[in-house]
Amino acid sequence: MHKKWVIFFLIYSVSVFFIFIYILFPSQMIKRKMEQTISRHFTGQVNIREVSFALPVQFRLKGVDLTLSDIPEGEMPASIKIDEMKAGLNFLKILRGRIGIRGEIQVGDGSIKANFDQRLIGKSLRHLSGVIKNIAIQDFPFLGQQLGIHVTGLLNGELDANWSGQDIIQSDGTWSFHIDKGRITPRQFPAFSYDSVQGRGIIKEQNIQITRIEVEGQDLSLVATGQVRLASQIKKFHIDTQVGLKLLPNLRQRLGAFASLLPKPDNSGFINLFVSGPPGGLRFSSKRIRKSNFSGKLIQIVLASL
Fold it and tell me: 7-43: string of b/e by CB count within 10 Å (b at 16+)?
């Protein structure tokens, strides 16, 4: 009985608070505060065209422009343009003794939807689920800049994670994604196209475990397994994967003399590589390339599809 009264009081208090906010919503002040808050988490500039509030309980941000300056040397600042961001409370979760927040980001014709909730009473357990639909990867250029590549394609994916404490990288969960028809342009190497990229795995003990990633296209086939050690910044991630790469005649011809530096394929036609290091300094191991003291630039092609 006591728990029900606590939940009722919380709903009543939150409702009164947000009705008050709706009547006297200080949009300009909140706009400035949100720009400052976002800037603390992204090195660069943040501009928000409009901030609004709607009942029952929903914040909306329109025209969000992020210009990131924390990029590899020699690259131009990356811009991300978000059409709309919105977040609101899920009252059904509150009735069950949890606080729930639903969020959505609109970028072009694509969207990212997420649901977050945690217990109101007792141990602080958190849950996050997300769905990505038809996001054009080229709308997020900073991801490719971390590997020195330009990537296009249409991304769909799902994420489900649980954790306690404040740090989401300590979560346990599952992930999967699918990318349709795209093109990858590494620096200093020929561009190549792919028809599809599919991947799945788990998240456990600050690691993204790669169960399997497959790339298929007219230029190459690729299969990868391994893990990515998470950190507070993408550039501090550590990648440790085993990659099987099959270069099809079209791409092998464009690579020219460089293709002769590659290890000999196995009976199935795949070249086996072991890849490790941070995104900006990846290295691969194979006996033939180690003898030739090759610099490791090939990995910008191999892992571009990941």
Answer: beeeeeeeeeebeeeeeebeeeebbeebbeebeeeee
